[in-house]
């Protein structure tokens, strides 16, 4: 084995060791790296008590309520399994929309709701013109209608959605 | 020339210097062409986005800059490994020549990301895994440049810098997969080798801009490596011949 091949093997070995160390450290820090936790995590008691943290999920359709002053807002964050009501006073980002992603920072209060001091919108990775988005939406609706029709005609409805 | 073409011939600075000089204008010209085509497609042809409106168009700078910031680091780490294993002179010079461009790309990625984040997410910055690991990449570039600049002996500087580059390379997959591995505010990737979730003209605009950034990076790195070669090899015959009588007056 030539010395330069030995060196190359040494570099490869060192890289592998560094990679394994990084993987172990990241794995240990896993819960600290996550930016937010889901309503299911909160329900499971994983939320820090009395401390500021972030929750993330989708804004439940039809849950957005605005007080007359226009800045006192309540909405429900859902991961389709568990829901959490979020209260927030402030201006929402432009992309905040029902059915879309959201990350809220704040604390749990005693009545089981989440009092947020910051609300951020999380958009998805799809980029398309509005017409295409509408076509996709329509197709989804048609599929849902088809499913409903199938369910109505005696087929077994699915338990989950 | 009758002898067979030998790529290793260009591992010598004396032969690589003129080759780089010949290639620079071509890479620069190709970069401009890709850039014009990409900007035309991205700014004028590509449709408005269904949720972000016109604001999404910063993607045509943001994504190519981010890709290049990661790719340039990988190339630098490659040169570092070659330099450490085979003790070649040119490898360290190539790594040093690429570093400022890589740092520029990482900075551009963070800066355009902040400008994009404020209107869309509602925040200039969040400490999520994607943003934080990209910031670490910028620090790695700056740290590499500082380290190599702090050591007077060029070959020793290359060795120390190369070691830093190789250790830091673990960060690149972390950046890339961060949106998959952890909950982040940054959305998942829109494009990979097999699929894309972007409209076709948007995607082509972005790919053309990425080619533009790539060619630009090669052109400026070659320019920089030429000056590094002249500086490091200033006492050799080929540099003296290259510069004619010009060095004689500059010597202290």
From TrEMBL, chain A:
Residues binding heme, per UniProt:
123, 127
Residues on the Extracellular side?
A: 29-161
Task: Region Disordered: list its residue ranges.
Answer: 132-161
Its recorded name reads: Cytochrome c-type biogenesis protein CcmE
* Designated gene of the protein: ccmE
Q: Does the keyword Iron apply?
A: yes
Gene Ontology biological-process entries: cytochrome complex assembly; protein-heme linkage
Q: Which PANTHER family match?
A: CYTOCHROME C-TYPE BIOGENESIS PROTEIN CCME HOMOLOG, MITOCHONDRIAL (PTHR34128:SF2)
Say where the protein is mainly found.
membrane
List keywords of the entry alphabetically: Cell membrane, Cytochrome c-type biogenesis, Heme, Iron, Membrane, Metal-binding, Signal-anchor, Transmembrane, Transmembrane helix
Per the record, its GO cellular-component terms are:
plasma membrane
- Which InterPro entries does the UniProt record give? CcmE, CcmE-like_sf, NA-bd_OB-fold
Q: Tell me the function of this protein.
A: Heme chaperone required for the biogenesis of c-type cytochromes. Transiently binds heme delivered by CcmC and transfers the heme to apo-cytochromes in a process facilitated by CcmF and CcmH.
| Membrane-topology annotation of the record | Single-pass type II membrane protein
Q: Residue ranges under compositional bias (Low complexity)?
A: 149-161
Instruction: List residues in topological domain: Cytoplasmic.
Output: 1-7
